[in-house]
Specification:
alpha+beta; 336 residues; 4-stranded antiparallel beta sheet
Length: 336
């Protein structure tokens, strides 16, 4: 059983939990305050969500044991302890699972963690945040499950980032630097939640359809200013780069009986939080989608819309500045 805390041992590799801790420290100003931030990486690769259920024992117990040991070590040294949040980076190995089944299992894991941590600490954890990504390689049902959870204001699930804008080493895994970028997005999301800022991913808050002038205005949840940009992806990424010529910036307006015809003719940002989509016609039964397939490439579900949070959520590595902006995740809704 662990008996003490150690400093971050990772020097040549990176994982989301250490990167999240570093970003949280930078944003919160905790450095030099006497407070300590503990990052416990309980992850195991190539696992399904079913293996993390409490009824499956081993992996779930790894999470709870990390809390139990940390709590005991802190109290033995005269300190207090509080679990700030859970980072969840899982989904690829549930490719083919049903959306609702996956959501129910993830919700049950959070509920079990809350119950067990409350039993250990005696504190209330009903508002425990779970920070995760939007998985892009597991098919529609999993990233829709991720999106629906983070879009629900009462769920306590939050999206650090979709990951289409990061570099892949192989079919499933990011490179070390991309995990640092993902983790930095986790840490910033956790900071905003803990600071009481009304944080949600870059998703629609409201929309207005002007049928006469044929345009759709979509107002997004954002804590920054919207920017249209092409994601910068390393040329040696497994799935290739963005081609930079998506005229509708990765958005799609279509009808149920004509799913291949995009009605968007132009896209422009008209305010800090609102994008205008000009349409060639307005008909009944239209749907709005963020994320369309780009010529058969993996870079499907990508958009060219981000905010400018990277102005303050960033890091320098080997002399290069890496931004951690919020990129627009996949979503879809009915317009009329």
């Amino acid at each position: 059983a662990p008996t003490s805390f150690i400093t971050n041992p990772y020097s040549t590799t990176e994982n989301p939990s250490t990167a999240a801790a570093s970003a949280f420290m930078r944003l919160s100003g905790m450095a030099g305050t006497g407070k300590k931030l503990l990052s416990s990486n309980c992850s195991v690769g190539s696992t399904t969500i079913e293996q993390w259920l409490k009824s499956a024992d081993d992996l779930y117990n790894g999470i709870i044991n990390a809390v139990r040991h940390a709590y005991n070590i802190a109290l033995a040294s005269g300190q207090t302890y509080r679990l700030l949040g859970v980072l969840w980076t899982q989904g690829e190995h549930n490719k083919g699972s049903g959306k609702d089944d996956y959501k129910a299992k993830l919700i049950s894991i959070r509920e079990d963690i809350i119950a067990d941590v409350e039993e250990i600490t005696g504190d209330d954890y009903s508002d425990l945040p779970v920070i995760m990504y939007e998985c892009m390689t597991a098919g529609d049902s999993i990233y829709q499950a991720h999106y629906e959870l983070v879009a629900d204001p009462a769920s306590h699930f939050y999206c650090g980032a979709p990951i289409y804008y990061l570099k892949y080493n192989d079919q499933w895994h990011l490179d070390s630097l991309s995990y640092k970028r993902l983790g930095s997005s986790y840490g910033s999301a956790l900071f905003y939640v803990m600071a009481g800022i009304n944080y949600k991913p870059l998703t629609p808050r409201s929309y207005m359809l002007n049928s006469a002038e044929r345009y759709l205005d979509v107002t997004f949840n954002t804590i920054g200013k919207l920017v249209l940009d092409v994601p910068e992806i390393a040329s040696d990424s497994f799935y290739g780069q963005m081609n930079g010529v998506l005229p509708a910036k990765g958005f799609f307006v279509y009808t149920s009986n004509n799913t291949n015809l995009n009605k968007i003719t132009a896209v422009e940002i008209i305010s800090d939080d609102t994008v205008r989509y000009h349409l060639n016609s307005v008909v009944a039964g239209m749907k709005f989608r963020a994320g369309v397939e780009e010529g058969g490439s993996f870079r499907f579900k990508a958009t060219y819309l981000r905010d400018n949070v990277g102005d303050r959520v960033n890091f320098v590595y080997n002399g290069n500045l890496y931004r951690c902006d919020n990129w627009c995740p996949y979503f879809e809704f009915n317009i009329n």
